[in-house]
Automatic annotation (TrEMBL):
<feature type="signal peptide">
    <location>
        <begin position="1"/>
        <end position="21"/>
    </location>
</feature>
<dbReference type="InterPro" id="IPR006059">
    <property type="entry name" value="SBP"/>
</dbReference>
<dbReference type="GO" id="GO:0055085">
    <property type="term" value="P:transmembrane transport"/>
</dbReference>
<dbReference type="Pfam" id="PF13416">
    <property type="entry name" value="SBP_bac_8"/>
</dbReference>
<dbReference type="InterPro" id="IPR006061">
    <property type="entry name" value="SBP_1_CS"/>
</dbReference>
<keyword id="KW-0732">Signal</keyword>
<protein>
    <recommendedName>
        <fullName>Sugar ABC transporter substrate-binding protein</fullName>
    </recommendedName>
</protein>
<dbReference type="InterPro" id="IPR050490">
    <property type="entry name" value="Bact_solute-bd_prot1"/>
</dbReference>
<comment type="similarity">
    <text>Belongs to the bacterial solute-binding protein 1 family.</text>
</comment>
<keyword id="KW-0813">Transport</keyword>
Length: 417
């Protein structure tokens, strides 16, 4: 899945899916088979995993329905949670915190012995499935999106920077070393390091150890961390270290394909994006991210409480998130597993023709294991968008960065009243 398919697309399966034409939740057919409707978005579940599930449950009729992603996916899903037209099982985007306030609309998986499987998953992803009081689990994890540095080999070589992934991982280890590399790339290769100040701000936001709102819903702006990443992104913009193309766009794809900038902090599924963008073998390689470990995307499966067959639906959800299913998802869709049983030697040594003989999965595994769960306020995404909108104005219209920051703060405070 790509950025647009893994994040927004991630968000759509829940939506239109709730409008299952002529198929109510948990119907029984003439041969008394239990029918379960399962809504997913493109790239959320592999065909192999779906086929295997049908074989695993021959006494169930599993109706998988692919739902197109769109901007009002979440709105439609939330509106359908009380409806009998809702599916039995639905995929949920990485924005699961938006659904925790609706926990009573989902089947509590704790009641179906889900916690016996906790050790199979990376801890932070598992923890994100629960309400803050840990009394309700609304979902099971499918995939995650641990990040690494995707670097442009030619750009690094022209800049006099290391081109070996291990050397880069030892050289670029923090904010300062990365900014110095960006300076060197501009001076020696006459090339920007970052795709845009927006993408840099977004990458840094995923590394924050606090959120704009604290656990009590109070505005704290991450106790200064948000301003730090804002200033870092502004510095890159003002020093000419950014190309200025949007990631989820034709221009962004063209910039990647032509190698017009030096590097990007991307999730594991970014490998698929490289392939889709038609890059050459060894044009881009992978190293450890210079930033604190972060995650970008990853989805879940939930059982909606209106299901007539919650026990059977939970069984299917457990199967679709188990080791076998996640291996199938990775092989077919490059979905990075949240199930740690997959992290064996063969998985660590996976290779891809885009990267020659490089074994890169260990960078993503290390990031996945380093991450910690930080509870998020449902308003977090909307609040951060205020800063995203303003840094675009800084980059595209030359708006004064301090005024842009203050305008974003003003809007966040207004929406938080």
């Amino acid at each position: 899945m790509g950025k647009n398919s893994r994040i927004y697309v991630l968000s759509v399966a829940l939506v239109s899916g709730l409008i299952l034409a002529g198929c109510g939740s948990g119907n029984a057919s003439n041969n008394d088979k239990v029918e379960l409707s399962i809504n997913y978005y493109n790239g959320a579940i592999s065909k192999k995993a779906m086929d295997n599930a049908k074989k695993e449950f021959p006494d169930y009729k599993l109706n998988f329905k692919q739902i197109p992603a769109n901007d009002d996916f979440d709105t439609k899903l939330k509106a359908s949670l009380n409806s009998k037209s809702a599916p039995d099982i639905t995929a949920i985007n990485s924005n699961i915190s938006d659904y925790l306030p609706y926990a009573d609309k989902f089947v509590n998986l704790i009641n179906y012995d889900s916690e016996s499987l906790a050790d199979d998953f990376v801890e932070w992803k598992w923890d994100s499935c629960f309400t803050n009081d840990k009394k309700t689990q609304i979902a099971m994890p499918i995939d995650i999106g641990p990040t690494a540095l995707f670097y442009n080999v030619d750009a690094f070589e022209k800049a006099g920077l290391p081109t070996n992934d291990q050397e880069i991982s030892k050289t670029l280890t923090d904010d300062d070393s990365l900014m110095n590399a960006a300076k060197q790339m501009k001076e020696k290769a006459n090339m920007p390091f970052f795709q845009s100040s927006l993408s840099l701000l977004q990458s840094k936001n995923r590394t924050m150890t606090k959120h704009i709102y604290d656990e009590n819903g109070k505005l704290t702006y991450a106790d200064g961390q948000l301003k730090e990443i804002w200033d870092y992104s502004v510095k890159a913009e003002q020093n000419g270290y950014t190309l200025g193309t949007k990631g989820n766009s034709a221009d962004g794809a063209n910039a990647v394909q032509k190698g017009m900038f030096g590097g990007m902090i991307e999730a594991s599924w970014g490998i698929n994006d490289l392939a889709e963008n038609g890059v050459s073998s060894k044009q881009w390689m992978i190293a450890k991210s210079p930033f604190t470990a972060s995650n970008y995307g990853g989805s879940y499966l939930s059982v909606i409480k209106t299901s007539s067959h919650p026990k059977e639906a939970v069984e299917v959800v457990k199967y679709l998130t188990n080791e076998e299913s996640q291996r199938a998802n990775y092989k077919e869709l490059s979905l990075f597993p949240s199930n740690t049983k997959v992290y064996d030697d063969s998985f660590k040594s996976v290779k891809n023709e885009l990267f020659g003989d490089e074994e890169f999965n260990h960078y993503f595994i290390d990031a996945a294991n380093e991450l910690k769960y930080i509870p998020s306020d449902p308003r977090e995404s909307a609040a951060f968008k205020c800063f995203e909108d303003q840094i675009i104005l800084v980059a595209e219209q030359g708006k004064d960065p301090e005024k842009a920051w203050n305008d974003a703060v003003k809007k966040v405070e207004e929406m938080s009243k």
